[in-house]
User: What shape does this take?
Amino acid sequence: MLRKSLEDDREPQLYREIFPFSDIPRVVWDFQPVKIHVPNEIYLTDTTFRDGQQARDPLTVEQIVTLYEKLHRLGGEKGIIRASEFFVYSKKDRMAVEQCIALEYDYPRVTGWVRASKEDLQLVKEMKISETGILTSISDYHILYKFNSTRSSVLEKHLSICEEALKSGVSIRCHLEDLTRADFHGSVVPFAQKLMKLEEKYHLPVILRLCDTLGLGVPFSEAALPRSIPKLVHGLRSIGVPSDRLEFHAHNDFHKGVVNATVAWLYGCTYVNTTLLSVGERAGNVPLEAMVIEYVQLRGSNDGMNLSVLTEIADYYEKTGFNIPSYYPILGKNFAVTRAGIHADGLLKDPQVYLPFDTEKILGIPPSITISPSSGLAGIAYWINSRFRLKGEDRISKHDPRVAEIQKWVSNKYAENEATRISDIEMEDQIRRYFPELFRH
Assistant: This one.
């Protein structure tokens, strides 16, 4: 049993000096840094089919299975994308789980997600899912205002459901909800210690998912608890929780999702939880595609991941009716596009002048430019070849007379002050007029 501590007898710990609610949250500093500790292995996990479905039109079973297959291909033979999390409540959810399990991929593992209730857990048991996430709210905000209860009562209930899962042979991933507003020493530590004892008792993995539910975490080692992600990870490691039992899950409310996830890796988390294209509740989750790039930068290798699948995923999302903003990092249409005239000139001379890496080789996205008054014949030919991904003998030459006709149209548009810039749609109209075969192809 969790011991009845003084915390149950006094005012709840709401950190009003940090979270005044009537104003923007504060960062409090204790200027006591902790050391970086990068695990020997780091991995990604995915919650596109759970958290990611809470912020968009629901995916169909076919769409879920297709995206799951793409996650498998993206993760490569080493299974860098280790697990994928699914709802199990609706008939559609369960059909998707069954079809994904039937593919018999080692990775990503198909895992469930339930609230801390016996009724929810029964769904996981019936589906014979080997691992499930369990929502274990940890902050006094949730304990007091959501459950209207005490710490010991709520955490005991969480522990009883966790133990019931382990008794049934189901590994668990405990979602420490609202961790970045929780009393670390008064609630988090005793709860984590109890969970580790359950792992010892049942010899099944118990992973702690560190949930920055409101995106309040900060990446600064010198910041104070509970907001410092380095201190949260370090603190759990210091009480004996191994790195491979720690997973970080964040939201992006304050634009810190990616940096906090990277820092979690650096200070000892083995797993970082993500969604495709950052789609998730409120401001979204940590984007999987961003953490794939972070992984390669940190490890110096893609470890067998097939990064070109990211572009396939983006294309597939748009086919489902989901609009990816053109300025979205990595997978937005403008990622490898330059608009400034001087940038376009550099790109035409050598792509590496204005690109961070070979986007065509790695992502399957050729560099491109927008059309300006100074684009000239070479710029227009480059735009066509890039837009339609023409290679070798199929490439359009700047000497093609049809290119000259389009260049005249561009010059006239700007000369007549009809445009501040020419849109891709306008350019495509001209290509359709002079190069209709490209659209037939």
The longest helix spans residues 184-202. Residues 337-440 form one domain. The two ends are 69 Å apart (CA to CA).
